[in-house]
Specification:
Helix content is 36%, strand content 15%. The chain has 169 residues and is an alpha+beta fold. A three-stranded antiparallel sheet has the order 3-4-5, with no helix packed on it. It has a two-stranded antiparallel ribbon with strand order 1-2.
Length: 169
């Protein structure tokens, strides 16, 4: 299943952006008939999870190339992007910047981190703070700060050790 998912991503993102939804029919990969090729809130998790994979296929590093190019060209990430043409609309919320951190090359990280720093208000991200952004930031920062990793089998490997010392009552 992992291998087929990786192959689907390689085929579906030649421009460097992931659509929110896609499906396979009769052996072909097709864009969702309702949402089309748009990549936005549903697709942003793909970049985060690919970046946190324990054994990442280097060919998948390009899946965010289109988004990162928009960041370089305009100084901001779009809220919505056409996965084929890279036509962009809107302004991305803080969680989008965080979600790209684990996958982004070193030269793109300062711009992502700068956007996150500007979005931090009273300990929360965004104005107003949104639950989705907080979660994307939590997962991305925890990973990039080496607070946890995932094993090849999908297990969680936290950087800390915990012991539960119970007492008989």
């Amino acid at each position: 299943m992992l291998q087929s998912s990786m192959e689907m991503l390689r085929l579906f993102v030649p421009a460097g952006a992931v659509p929110d939804w896609a499906f396979a029919k009769a052996g072909q990969l097709l864009h969702d008939p309702v949402t089309g090729r748009v990549g936005s809130y549903d697709a942003i998790r793909v970049y985060l999870w690919i970046g946190m994979m324990p054994e990442r296929d280097p060919g998948l590093d390009r899946i965010a190339a289109g988004l990162l190019r928009k960041l370089q060209e305009t100084g901001a990430l779009p809220e919505r992007i056409d996965a084929r043409t890279l036509e962009a609309r809107g302004s991305a919320p803080p969680g989008f910047y965080a979600a790209l951190l684990p996958l982004a090359p070193a030269d793109a990280r300062p711009a992502l981190e700068e956007h996150l720093a500007r979005a931090l208000k009273r300990g929360l991200y965004g104005d107003p703070p949104a639950y989705y952004d907080q979660n994307l930031v939590l997962f991305a920062q925890g990973f990039t700060e080496s607070r946890y990793r995932f094993g090849a089998d999908g297990s969680l490997a936290p950087a800390w050790e915990t012991r539960c010392i119970g007492r008989a009552r």
